Amino acid sequence: VTGVQTCALPIYSVVDVAGNALVVPTATVLAVDTQNPTVSIATNNADGEVSDADQVVGYTVTFSEPVKSLAAGDISVDGGTLDESSIVLATDGLSATFTVRADDESTTPLSVNLYSSVVDLAGNALVVPTATVLDVDTVNPTVSIATSNADGVVSDADQVVGYRVTFSEPV
């Protein structure tokens, strides 16, 4: 429930034991906010796969209502490392940005999520979203080269040498 709620009490008929009517107090209005904030998470990774060429991924989180703060302890990262100095909460509390570096020499997916420790201005905990997951391939390919020249010497008798190049992954 969010907004102003009204509670009416029949105080006009209240009298003390001597029959004196109650002095009606000024109405007390309390704002009510029991709505938990939600969040959407977007990345700047266009193709959905992190590689050596785009190992640092930018994240933008957008909240359904202003939140008090966002710190490193509010962000869960698997398969990479959060750059804590990159966390910036917008002045209106409705969005934040940060960057994460995927692990090097890894194919472990990069998974980022927020914890329910993020709260709105009324203290309501964030509804934890499904983690944002990106595929990762920061493993550099290797190559092995074999020749048809058994003795390692090219001569008039074996001027043509065949090479076989084998990569550890498609290139």
Distance between the termini: 56 Å
Query: Helical stretch count?
Result: 0
The strands making up the biggest β-sheet line up spatially as 3-5-8-7
Q: What share of the residues does DSSP label as strand, in percent?
A: 35-45%
Largest sheet: 4 strands, antiparallel
Verbal overview:
The protein is mostly beta strands. The protein has no helices and 12 strands. It is rod-shaped, with a radius of gyration of 32 Å. The protein starts with a strand and ends with a strand. The mean pLDDT is 89.
Q: What's the short version?
A:
The protein has 171 residues and is mainly β. It has strands at 2-4, 31-33, 39-43, 49-51, 56-63, 75-78, 80-89, 95-102, 110-114, 132-137, 143-147, 163-167.
Give me some keywords for this one:
mainly beta, 171 residues, 12 strands, four-stranded mixed β-sheet
Structural topology:
Layout lengths: L1 E3 L26 E3 L5 E5 L5 E3 L4 E8 L11 E4 L1 E10 L5 E8 L7 E5 L17 E6 L5 E5 L15 E5 L4
Parallel strand pairs: 4-10
Antiparallel strand pairs: 1-2, 3-5, 5-8, 6-9, 7-8, 9-10, 11-12
